[in-house]
Design goal:
heterodimer, A: alpha+beta, six-stranded antiparallel sheet, 18 strands, 28% helix, globular, B: mainly alpha, Rna Polymerase Sigma Factor, Chain: A, Arc Repressor Mutant, subunit A, 2 domains
């Protein structure tokens, strides 16, 4: 590097490297290129009559659904003409957009999820929305994910995800945004508005049938049931018929809970409940997970590339399973050789001294075998059951760790790394 | 009589004295423009695009590291914004809403593998000389920043954007922008010093 040039101000160096002058937006050309979309927009503005995108979407969806013509007509009339439609009880008939509208401007959502037996608290989530209704922050506590009292507590904000494992005193930090799609999908899965729109999208595609059941009196909750046939509920084709039921408060029109049922020939079985939906504000410190850690918390940063060394290994031309086997062998070989730097890079970028603290006391002799990949449930990545020979008190013993693999694609290159070892 | 120059934050009055508009006046005008667009006036949308073009291209560039793709991303951003404009709930936050759309557009383009975003894989230099090597080193340093830091730096230096303009697309206070810029510049300087630059004037 020419030393003379190195004394330039930093700003000048950056401007020269990335700067661009004389940027001009050619609006006329843009209009020509997007003529159709602009015309559609103008037609929509002209004919909509309702300047409310949510109502417009629901109106269109209802018109295409299999709700009875009578009910659909009632909704349209009520919406367009603001005429109260009186049912036999003398109260306005319930319409889905009432629930969606009830969530307008909602800034907070807090909900519990009870899993399969519907009695075990499995997840708890807090979501903060911005003025546009977009997700701003998420906290998801996954209880007992790693075993009894081994929770994973995750916080997402501005594209960064922190995963706090209190029982291990480790904090994973993903600044690359790799966890962002997972976290945003999770937020969607518990947002009642998304649940309603998702159900109607599925009904449009013929994947489910929606029924709305109002209570026999004005104090009884309203139930919106989406019925899925066998194999139609999720990518797990082995599931039996399933019902998703949103239970709605008849007064506030807010969702009280979401019940998930398995449907059998002669009975239905409650297998999951999202409940105690709460839209009251909560302590914003709930998203400040760093405050819950301590000075000795092990911080694992995803893709610390300061030294140009990359975490994990590239898949390259290997199949995922082949790459995982290479990864696991390299990891244990590095531990055997006490190469904690290399082991740390393979273990999500963990600093060498922390790898040594975790594994240094285990005298690994050999990696005997790597079993077939096992899919984990509830958000943990899949793992390989391994058999490792270790030396203890002069004798050879066996350790059977479960090695969990993480998969990411930063910069469009598939990489795999060791996510956890239990 | 007052003439409004919508491309800048200045107005020229009938005596041809140029005065700087306070930010809130500009924001009010922006809200009016949005109302006009929502009543079908596409010309007003063009004025909004003009105002935000530089910053949107800069945000896209911070993800794509390619000038032409960044301009394509900006065009697509404006199209998506127009299609979804009715969903905008807070007109005062139009800038940051637009920025969010742009990030998604740029990330979609990355997913379609139009171009790698790894600035470390830039084409190798041949005869570019010292200036090109310097640019490469600086781009590498920027590439090592986090996504939000990179966006901030590119926004600042892509087209000499002011803190006020950056504040309107990032939704951050000027103080926060200033602090983060200082930190990011220090990181870049440190990387450059570790890679052969003897002295960097911060």
């Amino acid at each position: 590097m020419n030393q003379q040039n190195n004394k330039k101000p930093l700003g000048e160096l950056i401007s020269r490297a990335v700067g661009r002058e004389n940027l001009k937006f050619d609006f006329s050309k843009w209009k020509v290129q997007n003529q159709k979309e602009i015309q559609d927009f103008q037609v929509q503005i002209k004919h909509s009559g309702i300047n409310n995108p949510v109502l417009t979407n629901i109106w269109r969806t209802i018109m295409k659904s299999s709700i009875t013509k009578f009910a659909a007509a009632a909704v349209i009339i009520a919406v367009l003409l603001s005429i109260t439609f009186l049912d036999k009880g003398g109260t306005p008939a319930y319409a889905i957009e009432q629930t969606i509208k009830a969530y307008d401007g909602i800034k907070y959502l807090h909900v519990y999820f009870y899993s399969w037996t519907a009695s075990n608290l499995a997840k708890e989530a807090w979501i903060q929305y911005d003025e546009n209704g977009d997700v701003e922050k998420i906290r998801a506590n996954l209880y007992n994910q790693g075993g009894e009292n081994k929770h994973a507590e995750m916080v997402w904000s501005e594209g960064i995800t922190l995963i706090w494992r209190r029982h291990e005193n480790t904090l994973e930090i993903d600044e690359m945004g790799d966890f962002t799609p997972v976290m945003l999908d999770f937020a969607k899965s518990i947002d009642p508005r998304e649940a309603i729109e998702y159900a109607y999208e599925n009904q449009e595609k013929g994947r489910c049938q929606i029924e709305i059941e109002e209570g026999s009196n004005e104090n009884e909750p309203i139930r919106i049931t989406a019925r899925y046939p066998a194999g139609g509920y999720s990518v797990a084709k082995s599931l039996p018929p399933m019902n998703d039921v949103l239970v709605v408060d008849p007064i506030t029109k807010l969702v009280i809970r979401k019940e998930v049922y398995r449907v059998y020939e002669d009975h239905v079985e409650l297998c999951g409940v999202y409940k105690d939906y709460n839209t009251q504000s909560f302590d914003p410190n709930i998203f400040d997970i760093e405050k819950e850690t301590s000075d000795d918390t092990i911080r694992v940063v995803h893709y610390d590339v300061d030294d140009g060394n990359k975490v994990g290994i590239d898949e390259g031309s290997l199949s995922p399973e082949e790459a995982d086997h290479v990864l696991i062998r390299e990891f244990f070989n590095a531990l055997i050789a006490k190469d904690y730097s290399r082991a740390g890079l393979l273990f999500g970028g963990m600093p060498p001294d922390e790898v040594k603290a975790k594994f240094g006391e285990i005298k690994i002799v050999d990696l005997v075998s790597i079993g077939d990949r096992v899919k984990s449930g509830d958000g943990l990545p899949s793992y390989y059951p391994c058999i490792v020979e270790i030396e203890e008190s002069g004798r050879i013993g066996r350790w059977q760790p479960r090695v969990h693999i993480g998969k990411v694609t930063p910069h469009n290159i598939k990489r795999r790394w060791i996510n956890a070892v239990f | 009589m007052v003439f409004l120059h919508l491309k800048t934050d200045y107005i020229m009055d009938a005596d041809q004295h140029v005065r700087k508009l306070p930010c809130r006046v500009t924001k009010a005008l922006e809200t009016e423009l949005l109302d006009l667009v929502l009543s079908g006036d596409i010309g007003s949308f063009g004025k909004l695009c003009d105002r935000y073009y530089n910053s949107i291209v800069a945000i896209a560039y911070s993800v794509l590291a390619d000038h032409h793709l960044a301009e394509d991303a900006a065009q697509e951003t404006f199209l998506r914004a127009l299609k979804n404009l009715k969903k905008l709930k807070s007109k005062e936050k139009f800038g940051s809403w637009l920025a969010r759309i742009c990030r998604n557009v740029a990330k979609d383009m990355v997913k379609k593998k139009l171009r790698s975003i790894d600035t470390e894989n830039l084409l190798p230099l041949t005869d570019g000389g010292n200036d090109e090597q310097e640019n490469q080193a600086v781009k590498q340093a920027i590439g090592r920043l986090s996504l939000s830091e990179r966006e901030l730096i590119v926004l600042r230096y892509y087209n000499s954007m002011s803190h006020e303009q950056m504040s309107s697309v990032l939704g951050l206070s000027k103080a926060a922008i200033n602090n983060r810029l200082v930190r990011s510049r220090k990181k870049i300087a440190k990387h450059l010093q570790n890679n052969g630059f003897a002295e960097i004037e911060l």
